[in-house]
Amino acid sequence: MWLHRVIKHLLAILSIMLLGGLLGATLVRVAPGFGVDEQELDTRLSEESVQSLRLSHEEGKNIFRFYGHYLASLFQGNLGISRSLGRPVAELLVDRTPVTCRSVVIGLIIAWLLRLTL
Questions:
Q1: If DSSP codes are grouped into helix, strand and coil, which group holds residue 79?
Q2: What is the number of domains present in the chain?
Q3: What is the pTM for the complete model shown?
Q4: pLDDT band at residue 84, thresholds of 50, 70 and 90?
């Protein structure tokens, strides 16, 4: 009985996560400026280079194909490549984790000190 409830709740959580990810990706795709690369603003680029940049981002326009590809690569441990930095996202997360943890700890300490004094 309790196992059935646990499985039911886990499936509900998984469904909410998948739906939330899909809706989040959809919101990003319908936002103004999506698909515009900052490199397109470089006046030294030719029209062919700008078109090439636009075509390279064309694969992300279909939300269902993008989300399916993203989930498939996520289950394989591939988080993708950062477009702005050109480095693997997993590598960037590893690099930034200590800094983020330190900021969170400092924020918590300051918040608790303020709370205790007030």
A1: coil
A2: 2
A3: 0.58
A4: confident
